[in-house]
Amino acid sequence: MADTQQVDAKAERRATRLAKQISTFSKAHGGAEGQVAYIGDRGARIVLVGEDGAWGDLVAPSYDIAEQAVKKSGIPTHETFDGEFAAKVKTGPYEWTRMAGIQVGGPANA
Fold first, then answer.
1. What is the CB neighbour count within 10 angstroms for residue 16?
2. Distance of CA 61 to the CA centre of its chain
């Protein structure tokens, strides 16, 4: 029983730290929305999009911890990263250069 409580306490601390990071991002960008995606054994990815179009992501060790963190932060979430949500992301020259490099086998693949 003690092992389960220790794991739960660790998960709770991790969710709390992630929620703080999400809240910090949200405050810095005039608010934010998110989406949680399962990424296999690595856990879950929390994609954040600020009201100003800035975006970022965090990785949680499990889907449950990611959902708990997003809930604690209070930001609205989307089930999928659909067109309407994705359209809020503003990309700059860096992202376009990076994406182009991936497509043509440039430095991003190195």
1. 14
2. 12
